Amino acid sequence: MKKIKAVIVEDSRLARNELKELLKSHPEIEIIGEAENVDEGYELINKTQPDLLFLDINMPEKDGFQLLEMLDNVPITIFTTAFDEYAIKSFEYNALDYLLKPINSKRFAQAIEKVKDNLEEKVIKNSQKLNLSNQIFIKDGEKCWLVKIEDIYLFEVDGNYTKVFFKDEKAIISKSLNQIEAKLPEEFFFRANRNQIINIQFANQIDPWFSGNLLVHLPKEIKVEISRRQASAFKEKLSL
């Protein structure tokens, strides 16, 4: 397994050092950043996108629960706290584990095993292709949707994110176009160019275009250019 990237959000420098000492026995975990309050932690997590978060609960101004509520993409979370009264609440936030300070090394090792098992399950799940009837959850700001794959007609690069077009809506998701392409059913979705993937079921008109390219017409008067390099593969996909 590749290195598991982890972030520590903990206001106590001593507690951060104790965690790093425990992690010396687990070289598969790589600490890529530390923060001593929620706001710093929020910026760090969004910037680094870690696999794992070691999170204290009681911190100045905002607590660990508030940090999780702020995040769109929550890493695997292990709470580290001196107080046991938050245990039930922590699992309402889908925490993987809850470690009481001072943290016992054996108990810590058990938590790390849970992390590895969880990540392996995710790898297996992510390797499975979606089909048209699968639904995906999309959250963009305050809006949420459950969208069937068959209702999506275009994925388009938008900076470091991807814009999804479906029915009368469009939304931004944090996955790359390459990650999305790996999950889509190949018989229905086609990589038109570097920045766009189309659902060929929604192609209602195809026109010859400049330099051997093709122009595909999609709903909402959206036009997608298929590069010359991809045009022959597109024609082959649509032929008998």
Topology summary:
Blueprint: E1 4-9, H1 13-23, E2 29-35, H2 38-48, E3 52-55, H3 64-70, E4 76-81, H4 87-92, E5 97-100, H5 105-126, E6 135-140, E7 143-148, E8 152-158, E9 161-166, E10 169-173, H6 177-183, E11 189-193, E12 196-199, E13 205-208, E14 214-218, E15 222-226, H7 228-238
Parallel strand pairs: 1-2, 1-3, 3-4, 4-5
Antiparallel strand pairs: 6-7, 8-9, 8-12, 9-10, 11-12, 13-14, 14-15
Helix pairs in contact: 2-3
Helical segment count: 7
Instruction: Please report the distance between the alpha carbons of the first and last residues.
Output: 43 Å
Mean pLDDT: 91
How much helix is in the residues?
Answer: 25-40%
The proportion of strand residues reads 25-35%
Query: What Rg do the Cα atoms give?
Result: 22 Å
Domain Response regulatory: 5-116
Keywords: Phosphoprotein
Protein name: LytR/AlgR family response regulator transcription factor
Domain HTH LytTR-type: 136-240
Structural description of this entry:
Pfam families: LytTR, Response_reg. The modification 4-aspartylphosphate is found at residue 56. This is LytR/AlgR family response regulator transcription factor. It is a single chain. By secondary structure, the chain is of the alpha/beta class. Helix content is 31%, strand content 33%. It has seven helices and 15 strands. It has helices at 13-23, 38-48, 64-70, 87-92, 105-126, 177-183, 228-238, and strands spanning 4-9, 29-35, 52-55, 76-81, 97-100, 135-140, 143-148, 152-158, 161-166, 169-173, 189-193, 196-199, 205-208, 214-218, 222-226. A five-stranded parallel beta sheet has the order 2-1-3-4-5, with helices on both faces. It has a five-stranded antiparallel beta sheet with strand order 10-9-8-12-11. Helix 2 (38-48) packs across helix 3 (64-70). The chain is elongated. It starts with a strand and ends with a helix. 25% of the residues are buried. The mean pLDDT is 91.
